[in-house]
Every structure is written in C-alpha cells, then in structure tokens.
Design brief:
Length: 427
C-alpha cells in the first residue's frame, strides 16, 4: 500500500513525542515519587499532585529541550527535510509510470500507484531486492547509494508476461548531514514493452517473409523468363503458365496478409478486450460463410449452439477469424470424413464459462506433430498444405488471438481417427 503524503508529518511528530516520553521516563518516575511524598506528608491534595505531575509530563513531551532551543537552525532544518519528503512523495504520486522511493538500505519507503499496480509484490517496508531480483538493477542501486552518481539499466522480466523497462536510479537529497549521502534513492521505470514488441515484429516479419516468399518469387521469375523465351509463341503454354503465376501471386498475397494480421495481434496481445460479443452468432455466421467451400469439398458442417445469445468479452473480428481458421482447416483436412461438427456448450473447467468443439473425421494427425501445430510455418505435410493454399500461419494466429482473450486451445488427434479442437472461453 502507498503512504498518503498528508499523514506523514503527524506520524513523525507523534514518534518524536513518544521518543521524548521514553527518554524522560526515569525523571518522571522520580518526580512522581516526590509528589507522592508531598501528598502524604503535607497539606497537598491528591488532585493537585495529579495536575502537577500532568504539567511535568506535558512539558517533558511537548516543550523543546535546551539543546533544541539553543539550535533553532536544527529545528528549521528538520522541518525543511520533512517538507522535502512530502514534496518528493507528492511528485512520485503524480508520475504516470512506476516510481519507488528507497532509503539508504534500499528499503521501499514509498511507491506510487502505478508501481503498486504493476509490482504488487514490492510493499512499503520491504527491501526492493525481496521482490525484484535483477542483478543489474540491484548493482545500480548499490552504486548510487555509495557514489551518489545516477545510473540507468534495462530490466527484462518474463513472468507473468514478458516486459521490458528502462530503469533510472538517482539519489534524492533530503538535506541530511554532510557526508551521509542521499537520504532517499529514486527508482523510476519507463515501459519499453511496446517498443520491444514492435522491433521484434519487424525482425520476424523480415525473416519470415524473406523465407516464405523466396519460393513463389523464384517460380514467378522462372515462368516470366520462359514466357519471354521458348513459350513466347505458344498460346497453350502461355495460358497454363499464367494460371500458375496467378496462383503463386495469390499465395504471396495471402501470406503477406497473414503475416500482417499476426503482427497486429502480437502487438496488442497483452490488452484484454472489454466489449461483449455473441459467441453463438459468430459461430453461425462462420459456418454460413463456409457452406460453399464445404459443398465443394463434399463435407457437411453440423452446428449445435444455443438459441439464446451467449455473450462473452471479446473482439468480434478476431474471434470470427479464430473460428474461420479452425472450421476451414476441418473442412480442408477432414474432407475424407464427410462431416464436421461444431458445438458450443457450457464449460466444466473452473475459470471458463463455455467450450467450443470442432471435430472432423478425416485422416487425423500423427501424435508427434500435435504439440508443434501452432508454431509459425510448421506444416505436417508442406506439399499438401501448399496445394490447399495454406500459409502455415493460421494456427499461430489462432493461438495469439486466444491468448489475448484469456482462452485456451487444445488439439487431440490420431491417425485414422480425425481431429478435435477444443476452445475454452473465459467470461
């Protein structure tokens, strides 16, 4: 929890009064004994003795001591230091990014709301090393504590999600005594996650596109050279080659579309959708859209969904793309079974409200291939995939969309027994 700036000064004054009382308790005990003798041996009334003792206690706790009265500059310095601390806390709370204030022992004395939200396991009162065990960051804090020279490091975390922060560590002068160093250390964190993901997206796009586009481009160049040479005056060959070239061009276009789609999804994968969509309606729309393709493949698609709306948090177009990919795969690769079943039912798994099952009765997939099906460009049969205009990116796109929606996918398949894909949907 964060400390409220307005409660810091009263707390510090209360601690100061408590300390004075504890330091003067011996003197107060002696005064109490003397007053007791006066009450017992003189005309002094008990209530008068109690009042007198109360006055002595108040003077001990609240009145400044001789040393304090002799050094008003010290009292003024203490007040200025308290005001600086208040200002530092208020400034940290105004920052939009995580900020920690540490003391000389690297114990967290304050954290602003973004720090409390993004690093909940780093509470006030604990050393920061208890929760953020990053050697470079801890070394930077030690260097600032010893030398007072600001430091900057990059913090990379993989749990619970992969994140990057540019961390600045700097001393904060609170007006302490000379030679004692800075009273506090300021740790501010600038989130680099989006920037890193964009860089990775660009690198992946270049690597994947160059690899996958090389084959169709080489084929196109070869056919163009043939049409310019030996087949220049052969109408039959020209028509055949132009058909192949068109198919290769369409394949490259589909590949680029899938790469761009995957990159966009990865960029916002960590942001959960907040709108309600009707899952039952989406499944009906996808099945209706694919009816022509199913008829051409000789496959009957049977859909079983509730008549009433099934509302879940999601992004309509992305969920449509998920089920379009999965049902399209079931039609393409399960055509031997002549039927595909799509069912939406309540989920028995804790944390998930509904389950979508897509089942085909085709040739199935060997078990050793199943764990790798969602990898980019992984194909069980590359030649068959190309003939069916597959890019090898469909299930990778499905996986990233489902991750964004907090959903889970499992695939069960055996050779000769077909394939079942289960999608567990969270509310």
């Amino acid at each position: 929890m964060t400390d409220h700036p307005q409660t810091t000064l009263p707390k510090m004054l209360l601690r100061k009064w408590q300390q004075r009382f504890l330091e003067g308790r011996g003197l107060l005990l002696a005064i109490a004994v003397v007053l007791g003798f006066f009450v017992a041996l003189s005309d002094l009334v008990l209530w008068q003795g109690v009042i007198g003792f109360g006055v002595v206690v108040a003077a001990t706790v609240f009145l400044p001591r001789n040393t304090e009265m002799a050094t008003p500059a010290a009292a003024s310095a203490d007040m200025q230091r308290l005001m600086r601390q208040q200002a530092a806390i208020q400034f940290a709370d105004a920052l939009p990014e995580p900020c920690f204030l540490l003391d000389r022992r690297a114990v967290v004395t304050h954290r602003n709301p973004p720090a409390a939200s993004q690093f909940p396991s780093t509470p006030v009162g604990n050393p920061i090393a208890f929760s953020i065990r990053h050697p470079a960051l801890l070394s930077a804090i030690d260097r600032v504590r010893i030398s007072g020279v600001p430091q900057s490091v990059e913090l990379h975390q993989t749990i619970p999600n992969e994140t990057w922060f540019q961390v600045s560590v700097a001393p904060l002068d609170m007006g302490g005594a000379a030679g004692q160093g800075a009273a506090w250390i300021v740790v501010t964190m600038h989130n680099l996650t989006e920037q890193k993901r964009v860089e990775a997206m660009r690198a992946d796009f270049v690597a994947n596109a160059s690899h996958e586009l090389r084959t169709p481009l080489t084929s196109l160049i070869g056919f163009v050279e043939t049409l310019q040479g030996p087949a220049a005056k052969d109408p039959e060959a020209r028509e055949r080659f132009l058909g192949i070239m068109r198919a290769q061009g369409e394949r490259m276009s589909k590949l680029i579309d899938d790469l761009l789609s995957l990159s966009r999804i990865e960029l916002r994968q960590h942001v959960r959708p907040t709108t309600n969509v009707n899952l039952s309606l989406i499944l009906k729309q996808v099945v209706e859209e694919l009816q022509t393709q199913a008829k051409e493949a000789g496959v009957k698609v049977e859909v079983s969904v509730p008549e009433e709306p099934v509302n879940v948090l999601g992004q309509h177009d992305e969920l449509y793309e998920v089920f379009e990919n999965l049902i399209d795969n079931a039609i393409k690769y399960g055509a031997d079974g002549e039927s595909v079943e799509v069912a939406l039912t309540p989920s028995a798994r804790p944390g998930f409200t509904h389950m979508v099952q897509i089942t085909d009765h085709g040739t199935g997939i060997a078990e050793e291939h199943v764990p790798r099906l969602t990898e980019r460009f992984y194909r069980v049969d590359a030649e068959s995939s190309r003939r069916k205009k597959g890019t090898g990116l469909g299930l990778a796109i499905v996986k990233h969309i489902l991750n964004r929606h907090g959903a889970q996918m499992s695939i069960r398949s055996k050779l000769g027994e077909g394939t079942t894909v289960e999608i567990l949907i969270a509310r």
